[in-house]
Amino acid sequence: xxxxxxxxxxxxxxxxxxxxxxxxxxxxxxxxxxxxxxxxxxxxxxxxxxxxxxxxxxxxxxxxxxxxxxxxxxxxxxxxxxxxxxxxxxxxxxxxxxxxxxxxxxxxxxxxxxxxxxxxxxxxxxx
Length: 127
Description:
By secondary structure, the chain is mainly β. It is built from no helices and 11 strands. The strands form 2 sheets. Strands 2, 4, 5, 6, 9, 10 and 11 form a 7-stranded mixed sheet that branches. Strands 1-3-8-7 form a 4-stranded antiparallel sheet, with no helix packed on it. β4 and β5 form a beta hairpin. The chain is globular and about 45 Å long.
């Protein structure tokens, strides 16, 4: 069974940076893609970024484009989300997720594309 464990969240001032990690274990083969989502209090979980393993294409929500970078270290089975120029509106619980179905790029913008989820890590950005 695939397990995803996020870490790296915390409290940061506006304009600061954080790097989230997602450690993956239990895979017997590679998934098609992985993504990051976030959920703020009272809001629905929303797409942040995704990476497709075939070709290495990356995708970002407009709200984080140019500020966040998704990457991976395959040797460590770890997914990362480097977040810079953080804003108070970035405050949320951040989740990583694994997708086992092959979609076109924009297919990974939706929660339904993902099969396994981590427990989340809290990111709080103070103004």
